TrEMBL record:
The lineage of its organism: Bacteria, Bacillati, Bacillota, Negativicutes, Selenomonadales. The keyword NADP does not apply. Its EC number is 6.2.1.30. Keywords: Ligase, Nucleotide-binding, Phosphopantetheine, Phosphoprotein. It comes from Selenobaculum gibii. One of its GO terms (molecular function) is phenylacetate-CoA ligase activity. Residues 319-409 form the AMP-dependent ligase C-terminal domain. SUPFAM superfamilies: Acetyl-CoA synthetase-like. This is Phenylacetate-coenzyme A ligase. One of its GO terms (biological process) is phenylacetate catabolic process. Pathway: Aromatic compound metabolism; phenylacetate degradation. Belongs to the phenylacetyl-CoA ligase family. Pfam families: AMP-binding (PF00501), AMP-binding_C_2 (PF14535).
Amino acid sequence: MKQEQFEKFQRVFARVIENSPFYRAKYKETGLVFEDIKSPDDIAKIPFTTKGELRKAYPLDIQAVPDEEVVRIHSSSGTTGDPIVIPYTENDVETWGMMMQRCMTIAGLTKKDRIQITPGYGLWTAGIGFQRGAEKLGAMAIPMGPGNTEKQLKMMVDLGATALTATSSYALLLAEEIAKRQMKDRIKLKTAIIGSERWGEKMRNRIVDELGVDIYDIYGLTEIYGPGISISCKENNGLHYWDDHLYFEIIDPVSGEVLPEGEVGELVVTTLTKEGAPLIRYRTHDLTRLLKGKCSCGLEYPRHDIILGRTDDMIKIKGVNIYPGQIEDVLKGIDGTSSEYQIVLDRKENKDCMLLRVEKQADAENQAIEKSLKRHFKTKIGIMIETEVVCIGDLPRSEKKTARVIDKRYC
């Protein structure tokens, strides 16, 4: 940890103890005081902050500034309980916009670009985050929001959009529609900034081929500003993150032990300069690793690997833990499969079973793919599964995030 980072860490730690009802109560309960954190090694003494705790802090116990300093709020969806509400000061909005501007600059965008923004607006952070970044860059923002694919394509052509921001699912849907309508020669897209969900190499290659764009992988989450806390560069060798505003740790998701650089674990983030709702050692549930050394692109900012999965996305079946990234790794090695898949979990004769449905390329043979899928799955993951091969477009598409797992075992 850099000395400058540690000094910022101490300042934000003191601020939340003084001003955040949530953290004041949390640390009082554990007996932790500011004087306990004398060196970077002492950070390990600080308990993690969890998503469940932030839900209990609803609506604004996390807030660490007076109401008159709050200029905006965003929140999570709240589909599994109370949403997590995050207040922003003017400085927070400015910092976030600067992060997004950095991302767009790394992706090669300039004032001359026209950026079509398809993620959602409102309480969700994505749409307005991309728009703020585009405005700070001086580019033209086309604030479409999600859905209405017919209008998306019309505006993309008529306004000459040169860059697209989207979830990987919606980028693929748009790519498929453009190919189906033979519109590729009418669009001017050259860059796509994709985020919000994990995606595999086959999906990436399909979007690149069908849209004819350079792709940049962007990362973020509502609790930590929103999208834009890291992005891949032209070398496509990990994502650069902004260590002047954020402190990243990787921990063992079971023991909580901090892992050395290069080892895969759960990402933990501390916001070093956030004012409205600073977070100390927040467990993201995202699995990645910190990458060693300087990137060959020349940027000084450190890197983390792509998001390999989430600790809460794990599927347990027949005593085996399976992450989505392992499924994508299996598909990568099988000729004739496309990028899209769906997992159906069920119980038959009091035993768990798994059906893997995959899409195939037009000229591929179903029987050969099914045989190869079963063999690779058994070899790489360790269990026997059922398979079903369907044509491209048969599996559901989404304008947001695609639900890939259907669990019928407890219905």
